[in-house]
């Protein structure tokens, strides 16, 4: 009834249990090995995507920082020009 799980003749309950366990624990084609392999591939893919996202973020940040700096400079120049016009056309005669 229990059978044998010997390499040559797998019979009975022990033989079937050995076959079933081999489906999960085989080092080359077992479910655990395949899942570990897929997890490693997924992790590598996610790391690559993270690298791309980091690069895109850094590029956008540098672009927006440059634009903001230019806007601040323009605002400063406009404030200076406005104060010059205020000084020229003010109704207060000193």
Walk me through the structure.
The protein has 94 residues and is mainly α. It is 78% helix and 4% strand. The protein contains two helices and two strands, in the order ββαα. It has helices spanning 12-25, 31-89; strands at 4-5, 10-11. Strands 1-2 form a two-stranded antiparallel sheet. A hairpin with a 4-residue loop joins β1 (4-5) and β2 (10-11). The termini are far apart.
Distance between the termini: 117 Å
Task: Show unreliable segments.
Answer: none
- Strand percentage: under 5%
- 3D shape: rod-shaped
Structural class assignment: mainly alpha
Q: Taking all residues together, what is the mean pLDDT?
A: 86
Oligomer: single chain
Number of strands: 2
Put simply, the count of helices is 2
Characterize the main sheet.
Answer: 2 strands, antiparallel
Q: Which bin fits the share of residues in helices?
A: over 70%
Can you write the helix and strand succession as a string?
Answer: EEHH
Write down the Rg: 37 Å
Spatial order of strands in the largest sheet: 1-2
Layout of SSEs?
Elements: E1 4-5, E2 10-11, H1 12-25, H2 31-89
List its traits.
rod-shaped; 94 residues; single chain; 2 helices; mainly alpha; two-stranded antiparallel sheet
